[in-house]
Design goal:
By secondary structure, the protein is α+β, with helices and mostly antiparallel strands. It has one domain. Helices cover 23% and strands 36% of the residues. The protein is globular and about 50 Å long.
Length: 226
């Protein structure tokens, strides 16, 4: 179901494999720092939870399967003395529900790792290529191909400061000629330290310039906190 069921540590290597010193100094935040080095769950206490709506859209059902909308929930069952969270992740509901997963002693929000895994799987399905290669290129894109911009996020009846990270990781890929026109696919991540769970909206737009290939869009948006 989820590659991160093997433990968050191997998957968070998406960040940890980045070169030492990759984080630029000083006052300008960097996408890799904002995403992988932030404590996502500090605003979710014991017994609290964040709920997300996941929307899977396709341009051609015969080619790409049916669209659907479902729920994802990240609940904090306990807080360790050093502030880490023990979390319970429930992906989807009803017949679509995946096995519930438990993670102890984490600060990163597992829903983001899940979304990255799904993003890579969908891109591979559409464009071809090896999973490890595609994952590596996306990892590198957080360092040198991601555009960062400050944004305002409407949350809890007020506007809070946040950031939007946008990247087109395969646009200049040396193997883009083999990607069937999907190299312009775009991924965006909206986040704020003032929002429980940190991530407000995640988007993956996978599309091709070649005719007859279809378009797939995944969107994850925060809809509930408690």
């Amino acid at each position: 179901m989820l590659r991160f069921v093997r433990g968050l540590a191997p998957v968070v290597a998406l960040a940890l494999l980045l070169p030492i010193g990759a984080v630029a100094a000083a006052d300008q935040p960097q996408p890799v720092d904002l995403i992988f080095n932030a404590r996502h769950l500090d605003l979710v206490g014991k017994g609290g939870a964040v709920g997300y709506k996941f929307e899977h859209s396709v341009s051609d059902e015969k080619l790409l399967g049916k669209p659907f909308t479902d729920d994802i929930k990240v609940a904090v069952s306990d807080v360790t003395p050093d502030g880490q969270r023990n979390v319970i992740v429930t992906v989807f509901t009803g017949e679509r529900q995946r096995p519930i997963q438990n993670f102890d002693g984490v600060s990163i929000n597992p829903v983001f790792i899940w979304f990255l895994d799904k993003l890579v799987d969908n891109y591979r399905l559409m464009s071809g290529g090896k999973h490890t290669y595609l994952k590596g290129r996306i990892r590198d894109a957080f360092l040198d191909k991601a555009k960062l911009e400050p944004v305002k996020v409407d949350f809890g009846g007020k506007s809070v400061d946040g950031y939007k990270v946008t990247m087109v990781p395969f646009e200049q890929d040396p193997n883009k000629s083999k990607m069937q026109g999907f190299e312009n696919s775009k991924f965006t991540f909206v986040m704020s330290k003032d929002i429980p769970g940190y991530f407000y909206e995640l988007n993956a737009e996978i599309f091709s310039t070649q005719a007859g290939t279809g378009k797939l869009t995944d969107r994850l948006v925060l809809v509930e906190t408690k």
